[in-house]
Amino acid sequence: MQNENLRLYFVTGNKSKFNEVSKIFQTQKVKFTLQQLNLETIEIQADNINDVALFKLNSVKDKINSSFFIEDSGFFVDKPLKGFPGVYSSYVFKSIGDEGILRLIDDFEGSRAHFSAVIALYFKPLDKILIFEGEVRGKVSDKIKGKGGFGFDPIFIPDLIPNKTFSELSPQEKNEISHRGQAIRKLISFLKRNF
Ligand code: IMP
Prior knowledge:
- By secondary structure, this protein is an alpha/beta fold.
- The protein has a single domain, classed as Maf protein (Alpha-Beta Complex), CATH 3.90.950.10.
- The chain has helices at 15-27, 49-60, 89-95, 97-103, 171-177, 179-194, and strands at residues 7-11, 33-37, 67-79, 84-86, 112-123, 128-140, 156-158.
- Strands 1, 2, 3, 4, 5, 6 and 7 form a 7-stranded mixed β-sheet that branches.
- A hairpin with a 4-residue loop joins strand 3 (67-79) and strand 4.
- Helix 1 crosses helix 6 and helix 5 (171-177) crosses helix 6 (179-194).
- The two termini are 19 Å apart.
- Inosinic acid binds at residues 14, 72-75, 89-90, 93, 115, 149-153, 166, 178, 180.
């Protein structure tokens, strides 16, 4: 029987997010067994993703008898859209998509954008909630490019690899620099220090 203390759930309905995260777990030799748990969480409309993440975590905490984490992320076009879509990323992606964002921008060379991720972990052995964050900066591509990834990946060009969108990177390359990759590596360092 599996030791319940070594089970870790990632509560998400987003298979792409889960695949990215599990690839990092596989390469980092973590003792914990990661499993996707597709449970309905409550997403509040707040003006920062930390509040959204904490609320999401607490909305399912009583239903799970193991350590688990949730992730909340967003795409922020700082210039010229003053941070839009940000906390509305999921809704905006479903409604106007990548094409809709491109139609709102005229100066692509002068654009600035970033992705942010917040992971909220409930760590059962210590009965504690912890937060891990990641952020990646770049600009908006003037056209949709690449086939990989999901969401706004085809229109985001990271500063660290300035000639490619996230969709043109391999999953490993994206994980090395992405907001989610950074946050997950912080979570894994915590697990390694505490177990
Ligand atoms: P949520 O975290 O499920 O609320 O969704 C955030 C939304 O931001 C997603 O639906 C995507 O549209 C977008 N997003 C978050 N992370 C990424 C990413 O790594 N690539 C592309 N889009 C992302």
